[in-house]
């Protein structure tokens, strides 16, 4: 059973392995109210990673997202309320 979540925070962070040319990106979403991790994706810093994360979040029925102002967040999904912080 999937719990409905009204609001989520999404962000991405990076690290590297031996060289900054070998970047590793963690995309994640947490429940805005509880801080619980809802989903995450290990993927390059590209728009497709956000699409994958959004697909994982679909069962939660989230209507409002809080993100930074990275372009993919601003142009990606138009079906939800979006707030930059």
Notes on the structure:
This protein has 85 residues and is an alpha/beta fold. The chain has one domain (7-78). The chain has two helices and five strands. It has a five-stranded mixed beta sheet with strand order 3-2-1-4-5, with helices on one face. β2 (19-31) and β3 form a beta hairpin. The mean pLDDT is 85.
Question: Which radius of gyration do the C-alpha atoms yield?
Answer: 13 Å
Question: In one word, what is the shape?
Answer: globular
How many helical elements? 2
Q: Strand order within the widest sheet? A: 3-2-1-4-5
Determine the strand fraction and express it as a percent band: 35-45%
> In terms of structural class, how would the helical and strand content be classed?
alpha/beta
How many β-strand stretches? 5
Q: Give the overall pLDDT as a whole number.
A: 85
The number of domains: 1
Summary tags:
single chain, 85 residues, alpha/beta, 5-stranded mixed beta sheet, 2 helices, 45% strand, globular
SSE layout and pairing:
Elements: E1 7-17, E2 19-31, E3 37-42, H1 47-57, E4 64-67, H2 71-75, E5 81-84
Parallel strand pairs: 1-4, 4-5
Antiparallel strand pairs: 1-2, 2-3
């Amino acid at each position: 059973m999937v719990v409905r979540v009204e609001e989520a925070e999404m962000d991405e962070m990076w690290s590297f392995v031996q060289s900054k040319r070998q970047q590793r990106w963690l995309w994640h979403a947490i429940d805005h109210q509880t801080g619980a991790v809802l989903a995450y994706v290990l993927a390059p810093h590209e728009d497709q990673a956000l699409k994958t994360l959004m697909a994982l979040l679909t069962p939660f029925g989230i209507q409002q997202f809080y993100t930074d102002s990275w372009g993919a967040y601003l142009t990606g999904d138009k079906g939800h309320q979006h707030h930059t912080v």
